[in-house]
Specification:
CATH class: Alpha Beta
Shape: rod-shaped
Oligomer: single chain
Helix content: 25-40%
Number of strands: 9
Largest sheet: 5 strands, antiparallel
CATH architecture: 3-Layer(bab) Sandwich
Strand order of the largest sheet: 4-6-7-8-9
Distance between the termini: 75 Å
Radius of gyration: 25 Å
Length: 167
Amino acid sequence: MKRVVNKKGFTLIEVAIVAVTIGIISAIAVPRFGKVMTKLKIKAAGRDIISQLRLARSYAVSQKKPYGVYFDVENNKFMIFKDKVNLSSQTYDAGDSTIKTFDLPLDVALGYTCFNNDVVIFNPNGSASSTGSVDLYPQAQEVYDYIMIDVLASTGRVKMYKGGDYY
């Protein structure tokens, strides 16, 4: 009588080799994945700021009233407001009407702004109070990428740059 031997399956050595290979590839990929995720969060936060700047501009044009965006660098947030108090001062004052407030993700920090008093105000004709920019940096110091969001005063145009390149 012949004995039937089933030769399907893997040996323990083959399974161990595959497991070690996957472990080595994972050890190489995980640190890079963290940096990529940080870059994506900064880019997403930049897009959020751009959309809110454009929203403030559209409010100003449609309602024929000045609207602005205040960047609170110390608390890592920004807000859209309707400028009601001291219209010529181009500041965010206690009497101004806050429309929306946005907190940035924990991985992303507002670096600094080049706007007077950290405020950009959009006029009813669509122009901005001043030309300037706001920078976004990662909280982790091992990643050196940053994003700059630029506003042009004459037209109110908003663009995002990375290291001098358009995004």
